[in-house]
Amino acid sequence: MKKFLTLLIIAIQFGVLAQDANDIISKVVTKLNTVNDYTVVANVKANIPMIKILPSKATIYFKQKDKFKVVSKGIVILPKQGFTEINGFLANKNSYLAVAGDSTKIGGVMTKLINVVPTGENSEIVLAKLWIDTKRSLIIKSQITTKTNGSVTTTYTYGDKAAFGLPSQLVFEIDVKAFKLPKSVAADINKTTAEKKTKPGKKGVITVTLTDYKVNTGLSDAIFSKKK
Amino acid sequence: MLLKNTYNEFIKILSKPRSYLGIGALTLLVGIIIFAMKADGRSIISFVTSSFEQTLTFNGDVLNGNLIAFIILQMLIVHIPLLVALVTGDLISGEAAMGTIRMLATKPISRTQIVLSKFIAGAMYTLFLTLWLGFFALFVSRQIFGTGDLIVLNSDGLVILQDADILWRFGLGFCVAFLALLTVSTLSIALSAFAENSIGPIVSTMAIIILFTIIGSLDVTVFDNIKPFLFTTHMASWRSFFEDPVPFSAIMKSIVILVVHNILLAAIAVYKFNKKDITS
Lengths: 228, 280
Known about the structure:
Radius of gyration of chain A: 21 Å
Number of domains of chain A: 1
Strand content of chain B: 5-15%
Number of helices of chain B: 10
Distance between the termini of chain A: 68 Å
Oligomer: heterodimer
Strand content of chain A: 35-45%
Number of strands of chain A: 12
Largest interface: A-B, 47 and 39 residues
Largest sheet of chain A: 10 strands, antiparallel
CATH architecture of chain A: Clam
Shape of chain A: globular
Strand order of the largest sheet of chain B: 2-3
């Protein structure tokens, strides 16, 4: 009887936590869904081991549900995931289970940790940890682990478009695997390996500062076609 | 007299069909590379960036004229020495084989000036070949593929250079590449002073380049002391202009070594030609 009561209390507690977490996510999703499309200018500063690149500029186009395009004159390096995946993932309530965790202060903002686990086996996302500002229904930090691309930690800063849930700055922290190009491909035959050794498995940081948002202007689908 | 003889030597180079063979081969090779890049360049780029593409995306025109020009230079700079040696290796020994060197030596010009005029004519041909390569590699590629940031592929990572920061690197890179090819030209002319036939100096030049390149690419400590003094080690130093930051001191060292090679080889050729018994 005692054991049964303990299990019942745990189950109720878990149910309450899940309910609480779902409510928080639901509010975040509602806010994100107020944006049908947007255009924004991105200043990208990439600090990635084994890649040397100066800060570059790009224009990002987004349209619900998952249309996303980056247009730039020069080369811009962005993380493979982190911009739209979480929106799409959270939009389908039946595809995940959310559990609330501890409360933590991040950058002076009190956040609630929500662990989101997919219910289906085919989901690319394995686990999403979201630190949410429950007062404003904004994601302050996220850590998304996927099957193929490892983990990406993103820190969000908000400006004048916070009402839409759109950040003014994103800081991505990504795992970079060891890179070694064959000498024959690099044609760098006279450089010995002793001259420059690279440390594998370092973290890369990409800071994307977003300015000049144009929200809900009714972007055409043609913009997202393959060619510029 | 030196200038007049240099002019004559250049006319002789232009009158030989093999001089156009190099230019034709270069044009064809560049054309093939541009065609291949146009047809399947993206998969080649993907092969290189695939190590990063698990976590990163490269946006923008990665496959552009600047990258094609860099790839062409990288591919052909290994083969151009053969085209240079094909012409310059024949300059003295070819005349010995044909029997015209005796007549040349009867002219009112010193033997030193004869050799120097051949060096200058050889240098002019090498310069023309380098400029031809530069025109096709850079100008034509940029016309076909457009301009853009350049991804430089090093064995230990990628350097991405902005479009506005590239042309001066190509310019200086071509200058150093010319100096490297000039060393090949000087070497073949120096070997030509020792030979009585055309094939010997050409084959010897290539054999030396291949031998030195193999020694330079072997990660064996026993060769570490001689590697910095082999001219082949510095033949790819044009590539250093595409590093960030540019290692100017290393490039200067390479330039000095290449210049010293040129002076030494020219001095050997002058000495040998002055001492040579012209019996043909």
